[in-house]
Design brief:
This protein is α/β, with parallel strands linked by helices. 45% of the residues lie in helices and 18% in strands. The chain folds into 3 domains: 246 residues, 2-enoyl-CoA Hydratase, Chain A, domain 1 (Alpha-Beta Complex); 46 residues, no CATH class; 36 residues, no CATH class. Helix 1 runs parallel beside helix 3, helix 3 runs antiparallel to helix 11 and helix 6 runs antiparallel to helix 7. The longest helix has 33 residues. The chain is globular and about 75 Å long. 41% of the residues are buried.
Length: 377
């Protein structure tokens, strides 16, 4: 007999969901929505209480989100927000390589590039996705199961808590590939990192390790996910046992040279096990479960307001600029990335671009042909 049978049942309980299951799909590319029982510290399911899992399901393309997937994320967070049996929402990706690498560059290059008004309509959906995360009336956890890059970094930072695999890398790609990280990073990073580090992370397009992000305070925790002969092995590509070298902090920096090559080869064949990552997620979920729900969400929203302030100030004007940019630099950047298998390069010739711009050349077909890489014969 259920231990809930004694509870009074309210007849005619209202359904506050905006959508059914039409925006969810088990087939990639899509978004999976699942309700999973809350687990107590012994691993036993708690009857009647759940976490809502919103899973980006496009692993072959590093869980980059298509237009339809954006709709699925919006729907998933709205459902989690409105379901009174849900304690918190967990946002993650399928597979073990990536949480999310941002917008689907194939879709960007083959459809949105050169169509500013269409991309503007897409950006309305993207902004609604970030709003859905920031407005969810349940705490949100980003379970970082791999790369969190570009738009993936932005929607991850919109979450309240980030718990990461130590194989994950974090960073932006916009200025290198024809855009600007105005989907949240330029708003969130100055709250989450010291200002100059926020600046460099935003514009350099460097990837930083999960250990470095934990040290700097961008994420709450990272844990090893490689299991070798029953033992947990920290990411061998990252320095995790030395804190100072020549007076500089190196903990969390990537190894170089032969060490880096050996580390990449080891990771390629290593067994990845998310047991410890999921244990961290369950620990946070259990903490949330044992708090007054009204007091919890008021406290969460009080912190979120600081992130939302600058996001709300800039999201509309950013939407317009990002749309217009699809006719110029984004057109070049996304097409260069999308044709990398043909050309061997994923970026334009930046030197030639700057030379032509300095000479006052018109941004026309000749200009674009000159800076895009040629197919390799």
């Amino acid at each position: 007999m259920s231990n809930l049978d004694w509870l009074p049942r309210e007849s005619g309980k209202k359904d506050h969901f905006l959508w059914g299951d039409e925006h969810f799909s088990d087939k990639p590319p899509g978004v999976i929505f699942e309700k999973r029982p809350i687990l107590d510290p012994s691993g036993n399911p708690v009857q009647g209480l759940y976490s809502a899992w919103i899973i980006l399901n496009n692993p072959e393309q590093y869980n980059s989100y298509t237009t339809e997937m954006v709709k699925g994320v919006i729907s998933g967070f709205q459902r989690a927000s409105s379901d009174s049996s849900v304690v918190a929402a967990v946002f993650t990706g399928a597979g073990d390589r990536a949480f999310c690498t941002g917008g689907n560059t194939k879709e960007y290059a083959e459809y949105y590039a050169g169509r500013p008004s269409e991309y503007g309509a897409y950006m309305d959906l993207f902004n609604a996705m970030v709003d859905a995360i920031l407005g969810c009336k349940k705490p949100t956890i980003c379970r970082v199961n791999g790369m969190r890059v570009a738009g993936g970094q932005e929607i991850g930072m919109a979450c309240d808590i980030s718990l990461s695999s130590d194989l994950a890398v974090f960073g932006q790609a916009g200025p290198r590939h024809g855009s600007a990280p105005d989907g949240g990073s330029s708003d969130f990073l100055p709250w989450m990192l010291p200002l100059e580090l926020a600046m460099w992370n935003c514009v350099s397009c460097e990837f930083w390790s999960a250990y470095k992000m934990k040290r700097l305070g961008l994420i709450s925790n990272c844990v090893p996910v490689i299991k070798d002969n029953g033992k947990w092995v920290r990411n061998p590509a990252v320095i995790t046992d030395t804190f100072l070298e020549d007076g500089e902090i190196v903990f969390g920096e990537f190894v170089t040279g032969d060490k880096a090559k050996r580390a990449r080869e080891y990771v390629k064949t290593a067994t990845v096990d998310f047991e410890r990552l999921d244990a961290e997620v369950n620990k946070v979920l259990w903490t949330f479960t044992n708090l007054f729900p009204g007091c919890l969400i008021k406290s969460v929203d009080g912190i979120r307001l600081k992130k939302k302030f600058f996001w709300d100030q800039a999201k509309v004007i950013n939407r317009h600029w990002l749309a217009v940019n699809m006719a110029t630099e984004a057109y070049l950047g996304f097409n260069a990335f999308n044709t990398r298998k043909l050309t061997g390069k994923d970026t334009i010739d930046f030197i030639e671009y700057r030379r032509r711009q300095a000479a006052g050349a018109a941004f026309d077909a000749e200009f674009m042909t000159a800076v895009l890489a040629k197919p390799v014969k």
